[in-house]
Amino acid sequence: MNKIIYIFSLLAFLAVSCTSPDIEVVGITDISVSELSFTQVKGKVGIEIDSKSMLSYTIDSSDLELWFDNNKLGKITLLEPFEIKGNTSKTYNVPFILKPENLKAAVTVIPKVLKGDQPKVAIKGSVQAKTLFLKKKIKFESLISK
């Protein structure tokens, strides 16, 4: 019985270690806001992801920042984990919460948006993808508008 468990474990380890967690964030497709206040912003963001891995991965944590006109506005936190299916190219609608840290940047951007100007908006940082035996940090840098 121990030999069977050992062989199964070895095969599982080899199968996982031989596959490359090839996950690429293609870009942001959509953003919708459900709650807006001076202390937080809640919403959903459409993230297009191309996965060339045979395995499915779960994204469960993030270290992301929102930038307006080269000024960091705040940290973005995922509200719930989501699964990236293996060998797919798909857009995932991911719920998030933004906690503004730089009110000066927010105050300077709001009048620009109200005037109809398009500020340069970007999301920068990384997310953690994990599967049974592997964890991978995926670098994330996406320009939302120019």
Using brief descriptors, characterize the structure shown:
146 residues; alpha+beta; Immunoglobulin-like; eight-stranded antiparallel sheet; 8 strands; elongated; disordered N terminus
Question: Would you write up a description of this structure?
Answer:
By secondary structure, the protein is of the alpha+beta class. It has a single domain, classed as Sandwich (Immunoglobulin-like), CATH 2.60.40.10. 21% of the residues lie in helices and 56% in strands. Strands 1, 2, 3, 4, 5, 6, 7 and 8 form an eight-stranded antiparallel beta sheet that branches. β7 and β8 form a beta hairpin.
Helix-strand blueprint:
Layout: H1 2-18, E1 23-36, E2 41-51, E3 57-68, E4 71-78, E5 82-84, E6 88-100, H2 103-115, E7 121-130, E8 135-145
Antiparallel strand pairs: 1-2, 2-6, 3-4, 3-5, 3-7, 4-6, 7-8
